[in-house]
Amino acid sequence: xxxxxxxxxxxxxxxxxxxxxxxxxxxxxxxxxxxxxxxxxxxxxxxxxxxxxxxxxxxxxxxxxxxxxxxxxxxxxxxxxxxxxxxxxxxxxxxxxxxxxxxxxxxxxxxxxxxxxxxxxxxxxxxxxxxxxxxxxxxxxxxxxxxxxxxxxxxxxxxxxxxxxxxxxxxxxxxxxxxxxxxxxxxxxxxxxxxxxxxxxxxxxxxxxxxxxxxxxxxxxxxxxxxxxxxxxxxxxxxxxxxxxxxxxxxxxxxxxxxxxxxxxxxxxxxxxx
Length: 274
Hints:
- By secondary structure, the protein is of the alpha/beta class.
- It has helices at residues 48-59, 93-109, 125-131, 156-166, 168-177, 183-189, 198-213, 217-229, 235-248, 254-264; strands spanning 25-30, 33-38, 69-74, 114-118, 121-123, 135-138, 143-145, 180-182, 194-195.
- It folds into two domains: 7-213, 2-enoyl-CoA Hydratase, Chain A, domain 1, CATH 3.90.226; 217-264, Lyase 2-enoyl-coa Hydratase, Chain  A, domain 2.
- It has a six-stranded mixed β-sheet with strand order 1-2-3-4-6-9, with helices on both faces. A three-stranded mixed β-sheet has the order 5-7-8.
- Helix 1 packs parallel to helix 2, helix 3 runs parallel beside helix 4 (156-166) and helix 4 packs antiparallel against helix 5 (168-177).
- The radius of gyration is 19 Å and the shape is globular.
């Protein structure tokens, strides 16, 4: 039996390993893009070390001003088959949930938009990873499911984020039935931004990356902060929060002033990402 624990006992501690030492996550910087690839064959089953690496990789990007976008994808035919069943034991579950919490905290708090590419099944924890992405591109090969209910548990992270994305009734349906949905259905529900044929996936991703990285990295971070910061607030409170960021943080950036000058001078802005 698991001892009673509190959410605030979670450390949110990421791996102490450096990205070049990662075993399950391929981490590489490509100009303004940081690419992180799930790489635990054959099904990218998530265990504590893999989750710690993922959290640490995202956290290292927080102070890299030259990185504007994080791309998360998979080296396997399956995006992720979810949590490794061995992590659900009474002895392991706290550490696993703590590691999972550290990943999603990093995804929410990193000042970079995070693009998730799903070209295969995203099950359980894999579907939660996709749900927490800022943008999601999928192919028709993708499937999304939260089947935890069928093994006598529920997905705590999906139970938190899904009502924000699809509303409480659809969230209840997805969690209580454990059924899978197609990529197109996920797009209809707002879980996916675009569904593209696998043949066009690379071009679509590259075009979106080019569009995003053409902007100021600092302003991208402010926009993400304003959007996510308003979640859960009333409309009035959300407006107040967004306007506060706009007036008191955005206008202190060099790039916001450069953008306005470039518009007046009818030239392309030269971003400094600060």
